[in-house]
């Protein structure tokens, strides 16, 4: 074979050292001896020993004490060491930012929440993110070189391949902005970007429901969107637009006009904004989703009724999602979910009535328990996965 | 480590020979030299040579001529040999069966179509399938030992893990029938079972659109169902019920009663049966989906109008699917799709109007080109995959 052919055949193909694959076995955190690893993989003891040495040299795996002896010197065990490096997790909303520095297993080391208007544009916002992020790494007691990657959730559609926003409606100045390039230049590490709802779905899955392979996360706030976990992975679809259920027509829903130009869209009838508008038409003074939630919590009957009705409309669309995707768990988040049982009751009423028994017999519908942290937890998981995949480990050690 | 611990740690974990992984590279059918394979994998020439020998001994890989020489003796190339074995592909409908013997790349060697009432029950039907299948293997000029697996599509919900039907509405006597056990005993090879629509989706993907990672297949016949390919794989959901869109409520649809107990389900307003019922109420004599199609083809205006209207209702549900899954291709199959452009025109009209531009700008909507063979092609792909995965190859050679 000519050199040219070799080059053509090998272009872009990482040469696996095998250490990356071995590392995936260790990611569950359970300590194992070299003999354990040889037994599980069927590889020669010498091969395993060499790969463990590579992983030890990286710091990603560390000695974890001695195993019980069966006679003779007790063997050493090894385990994933998530504190070896740190990632920066960034959750940007329309008017706020939440940043966290976490270890490689999503443990939050330090966290920061501040008002930040996304409308100030990418230059101002990303410069501030880099500045605050650098400060947080220091606050966490880590060296700047410990930071290995950054995960960012943005409140609008993102081309996942390039990490650039695509015509985001509430992010003036951000269309096609090179977010990974900009932050990468400032922080010197890879930057992963996705829309906020996908990132929240990842966060729910990684932090609270790692054993659930089919999970649908729905965010009900000023807008409505969903993130889909299927067979354990986030599914983004052909253009990264999967989960965009805010503009699905509600079956039997009211024919209200939507900003997208159609009528009867889920967002137009059941979002926080839609509920606020409906309540204003009943003479209540309510400007935002948060104020809707406050009214419900204060026991206002009209607000409770409106939220439950919105839940039914959301349930109508979620019933279609259940028939189509057959998830075993739906997690409801976003500010309107803080209204509590009224929203959930409306959703459950319609989903269980409108879906087939086979799809709902094991279906749970719950509200998020991440207390506003789903975004940073998902951004952390996305950033950590980027440096901990088999291919990434092999590339870094190769 | 004690033997007991070793056993616990290794239970169910195949010892990879590495040959399975090497084989995946060769599955595209392109001839490669040992040096090519060493270059692509980064493995030692001696390792590659040993693995190639294992694959040659299995017959799954065969010499494929000589590469161009760069001086000296020209090196031998190797390629996947899909004719090394055969699989039996079975597509069972309510009243017919289509069986095929194919090679491991889905090439049909011999095919058979016969009337067969699924209502005769699993014993009668599966005995006949085994008898006809055995005969077809002989007709294809293959030895009985060449048969390595069987793929079966059934017209009802199937628990993919066990291969057993789950309360199938049009398959009396089949609930929880051990289809893989029964056929496996008669034919002596593994049997994979899924519902007909998932199998048809696999067939479309494998035979016609292997490069499309996000594909939705919808079958419009007596009933309506869909199969979902996402990130290149069929997605079955938590209970294998994914894609069951016949009972999604049509937005703005007519409030007709459905056999499931709800009203306004897609099947109740737009299936072949529903169209036939509507046409009968207009005084036309039409008993089945096929007769609807025949009327359309004969130029009957009422039938054409009814099919187009059904297309719009289907489009209303598919628009939700597009927003949720963001596929790049929708393939419409089933007998009603044979009515031609009327159905497709109705679907397109609503999908493009009711979905967001980001999700539809690269979306194609087409009718199947497999001429009734999607089922057997998918059953073949499912059966072949079962014996050609890395793990299966390693297990057979280990």
From TrEMBL, chains A, B:
The GO molecular function terms of this record are: kinase activity
Tell me where on the tree of life, at the top rank, the source sits: Bacteria
Known Pfam families for this protein? ROK
Gene3D superfamilies reported in the protein's UniProt record: 3.30.420.40, Winged helix-like DNA-binding domain superfamily/Winged helix DNA-binding domain
- UniProt KW Transmembrane keyword: no
Q: Which InterPro entries match?
A: ATPase_NBD (IPR043129), ROK (IPR000600), ROK_cs (IPR049874), WH-like_DNA-bd_sf (IPR036388), WH_DNA-bd_sf (IPR036390)
Report keywords, A-Z: Kinase, Transferase
Q: Which family does it belong to?
A: Belongs to the ROK (NagC/XylR) family.
Q: What is this protein called?
A: Sugar kinase
What is the protein's species of origin? Cellulomonas aerilata
């Amino acid at each position: 074979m000519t050199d040219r052919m070799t080059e053509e055949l090998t272009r872009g193909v990482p040469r696996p050292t095998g250490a990356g694959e071995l590392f995936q076995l260790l990611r569950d955190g359970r300590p194992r001896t070299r003999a354990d690893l040889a037994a599980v993989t069927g590889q020669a003891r010498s091969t395993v020993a060499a790969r463990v040495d590579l992983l030890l040299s990286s710091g990603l795996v560390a000695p974890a004490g001695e195993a019980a002896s069966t006679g003779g010197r007790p063997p050493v065990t090894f385990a994933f060491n998530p504190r070896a490096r740190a990632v920066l997790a960034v959750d940007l909303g329309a008017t706020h930012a939440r940043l966290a520095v976490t270890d490689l297993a999503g443990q939050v080391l330090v966290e920061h929440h501040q008002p930040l208007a996304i409308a100030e544009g990418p230059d101002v916002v990303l410069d501030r993110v880099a500045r605050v992020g650098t400060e947080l790494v220091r606050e966490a007691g880590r060296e700047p070189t410990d930071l290995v990657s950054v995960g960012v959730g943005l409140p609008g559609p993102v081309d996942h391949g390039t990490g650039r926003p695509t015509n985001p409606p509430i992010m003036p100045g951000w269309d096609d902005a090179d977010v990974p390039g900009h932050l990468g230049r400032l922080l010197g590490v890879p930057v992963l970007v996705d829309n906020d709802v996908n990132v929240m779905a990842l966060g729910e899955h990684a932090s609270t429901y790692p054993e659930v392979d089919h999970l649908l996360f729905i965010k009900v706030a000023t807008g409505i969107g969903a993130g889909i976990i299927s067979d354990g992975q986030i599914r983004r679809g052909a253009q990264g637009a999967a989960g965009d259920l805010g503009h699905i027509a509600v079956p039997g829903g009211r024919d209200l006009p939507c900003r997208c130009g159609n009528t009867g869209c889920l967002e137009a009838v059941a979002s926080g904004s839609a509920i606020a508008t409906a309540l204003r038409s009943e003479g209540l003074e309510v400007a935002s989703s948060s104020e809707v939630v406050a009214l419900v919590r204060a026991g206002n009957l009209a607000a409770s009724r409106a939220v439950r009705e919105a839940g039914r409309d959301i349930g109508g669309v979620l019933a279609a999602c259940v028939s189509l995707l057959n998830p075993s768990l739906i997690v409801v988040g976003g500010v309107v979910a803080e209204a509590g049982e009224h929203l959930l009751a409306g959703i459950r009423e319609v989903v269980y009535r409108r879906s087939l028994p086979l799809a709902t017999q094991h279906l749970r519908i719950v509200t998020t328990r991440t207390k506003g942290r789903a975004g940073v937890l998902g951004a952390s998981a996305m950033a950590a996965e980027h440096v901990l995949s088999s291919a990434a480990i092999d590339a870094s050690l190769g």
